[in-house]
Amino acid sequence: MRLPVSFYARPALTVARELLGTHLILEEGGWRRVGRIVETEAYVGEHDLACHAAKGRTPRTEVLFGPPGRAYVYLIYGMYHCFNVVTDVEGVASAVLVRAVEPVEGLPEEARTDGPGRLCRALGLTLAHNRWDLQDPALHLAPGEPVPEAQVERGPRIGVDYAGAWALEPYRLWVRGSQHVSRPPSRRRRERP
DNA sequence: GGGTCGATTAGC
DNA sequence: CTAATCGACCCT
Fold this sequence. Notes:
By secondary structure, this protein is of the alpha+beta class. It has helices at 5-8, 12-19, 62-65, 116-123, and strands at 23-28, 31-43, 71-76, 80-87, 94-105, 139-142, 152-155, 172-175.
């Protein structure tokens, strides 16, 4: 059972909420690995200064402008990958970053899946998966046990301080109490009041 | 062709 | 606190 295109064809914030509890599944080379999504971030469009699409249409961001239900994977800091699902209708450049999953199947006991870079490393997600259609059996998402509203926590997105007021929007969502939600980097000391 | 920077992480 | 490490992007 796969999440249909209609699942992704909604506003990024809605998709970010509904993605909690769903399963991210990769099956390549006879190796099946599954993670339960417990943390997401919504990037809501070109007007969202934290969204890569705010830079406009470029070879990298093109996939964000395309149809929903595709993977957007990019390389960050030259060594880590981040996995997103493209959301909303074609022409609206929005996506949801998957920031953490709980190991469900096919992962080493010691594998860490908290944090966007770590989960990609654990699951084997790379630039090779960029722009993949998430209806592909080799890389898709599937429904899981729904996460009740009382278990959903929200807060500002991580690492987007450059986005001004947009950095304050509570577009990061996670499952309360999950031991696999990423721990935000220790905040830098702010100016003293 | 060159310089800057990043939706991060690990290590000192 | 900072190095690592490289593709994208924005110059000249």
